Amino acid sequence: MIITEYEGHALSLLKECELQGFDGVVCVGGDGSASEVAHALLLRAQHSASLETDRILSPARAQLPLGVIPAGSTNVLAHSLHGISHVVTATLHIIMGHIQPVDVCTFSTTGKLLRFGFSAMFGFGGRTLALAEKHRWMSPTQRRDFAVIQALAKLKPEDCEISFLPFNSSPDLQERRAQGSPKSDCNAQWQMIQGQFLNVSIMAIPCLCSVAPRGLAPDTRLNNGSMALIIARNTSRQEFIKHLKRYASVKNQFNFPFVETYTVEEVKVYPRNKTSAYSLEEEDQPHETASENRFPWNVDGDLMEVTSEVHIKLHPRLINLYGESMEEMNDSKVTCNCL
């Protein structure tokens, strides 16, 4: 057992440590810690396969499964895996060896890999996390609530161009992808939309959590070979707040004229303005100018700042996680979802 002491510690440890003889890796922590360990395991797999990590067309699968025991504030990954954010349930899945293959995204810019991840938000979601990171002295709940209020008070859209490759549900194509074939549908046509967007979400997992019990992307599954692209165009603050509140209710959070949803395989997000709509001059540290041309992204609860276009590509079943299919649990007569 190793206790990490700082961000990036797990990444550096898993680069160097000897993993032969181990059946898996278990992370006790929140979404950021779990995503960092998953990223580290996948980077290690690329090095083992002698793949160039700056440009990966068909990544190698992680060699060891990852167990996630929730100990964070939102625990989206654990909640999506088990249908509940529960330490005992997660632990029992690990002990019983339940394995669930999960889709993973690569995030890259100008041909260079930034990281592996499961979900991302740009615009409101990215700025909210950036604000929260400036107030680490607060408790997680206080920090989150403060950042949401601040981001809503300064709500502004980002001027973007978004290109995406729609999901091809052809069974033959999906079978090839599940087997790791890098070939895609040569007849697929990229689509492009542009305009003023308050938030852009790209999610390869349903992203269940306490504030969104049905999931931020309720129609997405852990390994169906597609991502949800959810776009909130510019609207009034009042209407956007109504949209956010719907995530905690049984009502359809996408039933608004300014919200668009797509099922996709790849996405490119290109900010057309030189700086983020949220100028640092409006923040608590007006003299800090080094990041004025960097756009904040929320990737699995981690802040990623990028200066240009971000390319997100889905890779089916790239890592095994300890858990069980939600569909299998729903179909089962067993009422305890740890069995």
Automatic annotation (TrEMBL):
Give the top-rank taxon of the lineage listed in the UniProt record for this protein.
Answer: Eukaryota
Q: Which UniProt keywords apply?
A: Kinase, Transferase
An annotated Gene Ontology molecular function: lipid kinase activity
- DAGKc domain span: 1-111
Give Gene Ontology CC terms: membrane
A biological-process GO annotation: sphingolipid metabolic process
Magnesium keyword on record: no
According to UniProt, the name of this protein is Ceramide kinase like
**What InterPro entries does the entry give?**
ATP-NAD_kinase_N (IPR017438), CERK_C (IPR045363), Diacylglycerol_kinase_cat_dom (IPR001206), Lipid_Phosphate_FormReg (IPR050187), NAD/diacylglycerol_kinase_sf (IPR016064)
Keyword Transferase among record annotations: yes
Taxonomy of the source species: Eukaryota, Metazoa, Chordata, Craniata, Vertebrata
Organism per entry: Pipistrellus kuhlii (Kuhl's pipistrelle)
Classification via PROSITE patterns: DAGK (PS50146)
